[in-house]
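Predict structure. Chain length: 332.
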Amino acid sequence: MTENTVITPTLARASRRVLRDAFKEAAERFRPRRLALLYRQEGELAIETECSGGFSSKPTVDSHEITWPLVQGCFTQASPIQEQVGGAQILCLPVKRPPDGPVVGVLYFESTNKFPEDELFAVESLAGRTGAELAMVRRRLLSEVQRVLPTSDLVENWTGIRRAGLEAFEAGVSDMAVSFLERAKNLAEEWGPCRELAQSLNDYGQALRAGDRMNDAHTQFQRGMSILEQAGLDRHIQAIPLLNNLGGVYHAMGELKEAERLYRLGLDIMSEQSKENKATPAVMANLGVISIELGDPATARVWLQQALASATRLFGEEHPYTEKCREKLAAL
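Prediction complete.
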């Protein structure tokens, strides 16, 4: 993949998650006096502190608690730097995509003693493994194929395969659904980042989630959003089901803030549509549930009231979903 590939917001967030995991592992395994993870998004010059520990506050670029010339040198040289500064031993380790990708992050260690050889080898291995994980995330979330216009017979074939998969899914024939929807996804892969591929990833993810393959489903939904972003379609109406499904996965994983962000983004896109989306009350209700779990019943009440009003407009007073919203509101 060429280095001028767009870095989608979903890819950037996933990359930062990998780096945060590396910071956490470094803090637990090596327990330095101070530790920071400095992040720079590919193609940009600005460096920011993603995580830190042992400092009086989160270091900024004008902070004197970090030796910034060493950090800059590590980003530029893409190689480890170890120096004694005052009475402290400073170690900067680059995290880059192999074999010669850009440096995305720098792990900054400060210790009272020089790092032993075995420990130095261990932290360098951690940085290398983290770089490999970044490469895997990139490969998983981006399409390496340039967008092409499929011929009508290919679109017809994709539509037929997808329809067969969706019919099997609705009938509860899970193995057949997964098989057909995976075939449809693989066909759409040949067309590069496009709506058809994003739609297939969403379909396939739903079938996987129904089979309790939550991690695999998360990958499909996440990649679907990244594909839409890569194609410049992240505000397209097709992003709504992907955002809702991805939010549902994060909700199930207990990552409430990320689920809330995705649900809110979906609502924001819905608000741009000329007609009220039928998914609106469900998303509002989900936000109400998250607010309850976050210990904010007042905000939960507002969301559930809006969900009830939306369901009433869309489905009527007696619809089962309207009644369900009413019950959730009454339970507060």
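Summary: The two ends are 51 Å apart (CA to CA).
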